[in-house]
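Input sequence (371 aa), recorded before submission:
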Amino acid sequence: MYIPFVDLKKQYLSIKEEIDYAIKQVIDRTMFIGGEYVKNFESEFAKLYGVKHCIGVANGTDAIYISLKMLGIGYGDEVITVANTWISTAETITQAGGKPVFVDIEDNYRNIDTDKIEEKITKNTKAIIAVHLYGQAAEMNKILDICKKYGLYLIEDCAQSHLTEYRGKYVGLFGDIATFSFYPGKNLGAYGDAGCIITNNDYLAERCRMYANHGALVKHQHKIEGINSRLDSIQAAILLAKLPYLKKWTELRIKNANIYNKELQGIEQLAIPEVRPDTIHTYHVYCVTVEDRTNLQKYLKEKGIETAIHYPTPLPFLESYSYLGYKEKDFPISNKLKNKILSLPMYPELEEEEIAYIGNKIREFYNIKNK
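Predicted structure, token format:
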């Protein structure tokens, strides 16, 4: 049996007619940049979230960068974020002119440890980027309290957390602004790079839209210098066709996670992901912690099972951030887990029999190892 880490072909085939029609419509009308498909997607995504503004952009990285720039982050400013995220979260801080300041993670829920944020705040701190990693909500009430106490902006990085809930409210609705990625493998994925920004702040929304379009809301009327970061019409049409399925696909991800939990129960060398109380985890990634990860990965690959690591090196330990002078002891939990985390196949179309096969092969590996 072969089980890919993500099977985008299977999802495409399940709604092939709708996707093909959406693409054909854009091509037939030669409406490749802007237009009704982008506007309609922005409107429908905003409606789904119950938010005033959705601004489509070229990708999730740009979404963070634009948000930082329009919040006024610049030279000398510090922005706090978590140690175990994808580099987009941090590199955009530097690109905006600021300095990333990393905080270690919780041992159980793998998001930013809110008890360690305040010790990193200085007179130069201007914002916090809260990352809802893997589809797990960060501890938003504590983060909001800290932002209010110190007068900090709050950006939510929701690249992996479409429809994730914290205490009955979608993540992305707590901060000043939130960003999403629609990279193909995301819970809501385009067929290329795509992203968006959401906010209830009218002024911020206008500034973000302007900045993403060369500093103009009307062609040739450039109020500021901006960048070119537009959600193209084909990607918008694909996302618009997929959007009605997002809630169903989310339910299937949760169902598959529960099947995994059952299949992996009782394996002493493996810990299943914990879910924060009063939240809904949407499982962009089903990440377990394991012993002897290298050999387990190799064994699963031999049995036709693809796995991944999110992420093999915490950001403070990357060469790109060596200038910050961090040591492994500065991030004990991130350092402890970096060689143990393993992401198993996860997508809505994953079959129960396939999950059972994965569970069986993991048990098989440890049984052989323990003999």
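Checked by second reader. Residues 47 and 134 are 24 Å apart (CA to CA).
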